[in-house]
Write a structure and sequence with these properties.
Layout lengths: L11 H6 L1 H14 L6 H6 L9 H21 L6 E3 L4 H8 L5 H16 L5 E6 L3 H8 L6 E7 L2 E7 H10 L4 E3 L12 H12 L9 E3 L9 H4 L2 H9 L4 H10 L4 E4 L7 H7 L6 E4 L7 H14 L7 H5 L27 H4 L6 H6 L23
Parallel strand pairs: 1-6, 7-8
Antiparallel strand pairs: 2-4, 2-5, 3-4
Helix pairs in contact: 2-4, 4-5, 4-6, 5-6, 6-9, 9-11
């Protein structure tokens, strides 16, 4: 997932109890510290309010996603295909083996800083209408651009604040203003394109080891495209083609979709793009739910539905857990009758097996003291 999924304290629960996740985040914090990014303070300390700043939000998002991917991999859950939304494309590239960890974090720092340095004062809005209708309506508002084609009925627009406001009021389409500091994926971001392309050209890039769908081009990445700094830079300015990229993943046979991020913002869009009810959508974290409950529930569903294997040794590794066995002896299955004040001869029905009729002649177990005003209405208790 991309920007907008972040919040102060995201993944705090996992950091406290999952050694693999904690080690990954600590490594990320060490790598970005020389760039002046106090990662752990931003995520879990007293500087959480600064995560609204793009220069910190993007690197925080990527670091948490790195930790989630490593955690799932340690549990035996590994990606076969990846796709990312905006800055999430950096994390997807790392998961596909395109960038080394040091480089992807450096690029996240550079991208966020460059975008924050661009002219502010712009606005963005989510539009819940037919994508074709939105595209036609945008033409009538000079300066307004489509920032993301997310799904058949989900489009994001971006531009000067007054133009976005006018569109929301006059277009007749259902819109929701987004809380942003800049008009991302619009002309306002043009100044960041060249410097980011240059930053990408300075790092070592490898061919994707798994299928990697580009939300910049709407096509599959290959060895040439991932090394194209101009393409990565253009991703800051051009609209996000998330719907097209996810469609590629679905057509390639993707059947179980994990949203890697601090809160599920793409799952609903994904169901629009790929409405097949047989597909499975799992979220790693959710803002309003315990981290452990959320991720463990997702893994449990993944396993119990037979969607893949889980490395249970990896799940418990490093946590001091102890394995024990349940008793191997059979429980003594005996039935005890509780008299209810009626003649016992009426309790022993002739239709009952001889074994039960014999049991009623054995000493009875009584419940004391009897509760006043309460009578036993069942013939027997087992």
């Amino acid at each position: 997932s991309g920007q907008g999924s972040q919040y102060a304290g995201m993944a705090r629960g996992l950091y406290g109890v999952e050694p693999v996740f904690r080690a990954a985040l600590d490594e990320c914090a060490e790598l970005v510290s020389p760039a002046g990014v106090p990662l752990l303070e931003l995520l879990f300390g007293g500087r959480g309010e600064e995560l609204v700043q793009t220069r910190f939000a993007q690197v925080g998002i990527v670091a948490v996603q790195v930790g989630l991917v490593r955690l799932l991999e340690s549990w035996g859950v590994r990606p076969g295909l990846v796709v990312g939304h905006s800055v999430g494309e950096l994390s997807a590239a790392w998961a596909a083996g395109v960038f080394e960890l040091r480089d992807v974090l450096g690029l996240a720092v550079a991208r966020g800083s460059l975008m924050q340095e661009q002219p502010s004062g712009g606005a963005m809005a989510a539009v819940f209408a037919d994508a074709g209708d939105v595209g036609s309506a945008v033409v009538g508002y000079p300066g307004l651009e489509v920032a993301a084609w997310n799904g058949p009925r989900s489009v994001t627009v971006s531009g000067p604040a007054d133009v976005v406001d006018a569109f929301c009021v006059d277009s007749g389409l259902r819109c929701q203003r987004l809380v942003v500091s800049h008009a991302f994926h619009s002309e306002a971001m043009a100044g960041a394109v060249g410097p980011f392309a240059e930053a990408v050209s300075r790092v070592v890039v490898s061919a994707p080891r798994i299928g990697f769908a580009s939300s910049v081009t709407g096509r599959w990445h290959d060895q040439e495209s991932v090394a194209d700094g101009g393409l990565w830079g253009g991703g800051i300015r051009r609209p996000v083609l998330f719907g097209e990229a996810l469609g590629l993943v679905g057509a390639a046979g993707g059947g179980v979709f994990w949203e890697i991020g601090a809160h599920p913002v793409l799952t609903g869009l994904g169901r629009q793009v790929l409405p097949d009810p047989g597909l499975v959508w799992l979220s790693t974290l959710r803002r309003d739910r315990s981290d452990q409950v959320q991720v463990h529930s997702a893994v449990a569903e993944f396993y119990s539905r037979g969607l893949g294997e889980v490395d249970w040794v990896g799940v418990h590794a490093g946590k001091g857990h102890r394995t024990t066995t349940i008793p191997t002896y059979p429980f003594e299955r005996r039935t005890y009758w509780v008299p209810n004040g009626r003649d016992e001869s009426r309790i022993v029905a002739t239709s009952r097996p001889a074994s039960l009729r014999e049991e009623t002649r054995k000493p009875k177990i009584h419940l004391y003291p009897p509760a006043e005003g309460i009578s036993v209405v069942k013939d027997r208790m087992q």
